[in-house]
Design goal:
- The complex is a heterodimer.
- Chain A is about 65% helix and about 0% strand.
- Chain A is built from eight helices and no strands.
- Chain B is mainly α.
- In chain B, α3 packs across α5.
- Classes of the chains: A mainly alpha, B mainly alpha.
- Chains A and B meet through α1, α2, α3, α4 and α5 of A and α1, α2, α3, α4 and α5 of B.
Amino acid sequence: MIRRIPWWVGGLLMALLLMFTFSVFGADRPIGASTYVPYFAGLLFNLDPEQYGYLKEIDSAGAWEGVMLLGALVGGFVTSVFITKSFRFSIIPTAWKKYKNGSVVSRLSWSFASGFFMIIGARLAGGCTSGHFLSGMSQTAISAMIFGGIVMATLLITGRLFYKKEAQDV
Amino acid sequence: MFERIMGMFETVANEGHGSIALVFVIGILFGGIIQYSRVDKFEKIAGFAMLRDTVVPKMLFLAVGVASIGLYFMIEAGWAHYHIKPILLGGLIIGGVIFGVSMAIFGKCPGTGPVSIAEGRIDVLVGAIGGLLGGLVFTLFYEPLFKPLMGPDLGKSTLTGVAGDFGSVTILVFGIALVAVSILIPLRQEFDEADLKRLG
């Protein structure tokens, strides 16, 4: 079994999945992945949708993405155990050790904070890498191009400023 | 909470956006493709931010280029519809900046995060808990704080819509240009140690 597929096979498969999801034979809607987070927060903290307007707004999109997410967890688990064989418990990514530091506390607190702000950013923009980049750009949506340009720029600037230029010994 | 989760399945079942099983399978394929091409890895996403790995932009541009042409002709044939997000300038700019910074540090996005958790990444699980709290804060303060920040709705414009009669030419140029960009970006890869060992 091949352990990984090259970028162009991944890209073509993702394009096919996107087209199928959009089609009337599929789900007749785009792929998105950040609406499920506030939706699950609503479930977990038992917030009343009648009281919080935002939960009402995302009720149908959040449910759809919630079910898709459960599928993505299963798909990711099965593939990592049986195909890519990359399943293992780990706390610090190798490249974080190389270009940032080897501290568990540092990685976990940065993960927590960036996870927190990532969702606020995605919800402010009304979408994320899936909703804006994949689905939005494929429809040539201007909103997606604005988001895409800004994210690309800030991603590269942050990468330059936040990480060390030279690799450290791991 | 159990009732609310059942409610989630009910909502999906009662909507015309595919059966529960179909949506679940779309999720499995989504997670499978991401995991199989390894673009959920910190080394790939943060690696792109450091310009040490270009697999993510190559795959993203190729997928969008191919799908944009495919979707356009599917819509002409009546097999699909566009679902455009509106331009909320404040939200797109502020949200985009916050998202870009977080993505570079986290090395994940909301779609690739769960796939990484599924392969045993504890740091991503901690980030997801942060994300849930972010979602909670957004929900709690949506009306007084976040909604005014997002700004007025400037409409659901698309490039093909702006091009009018030249829609099909525009989409062909757009799609082919993105595919060309995806091929022209030089291939750089940053593997992690575990990966290198398994590659032998």
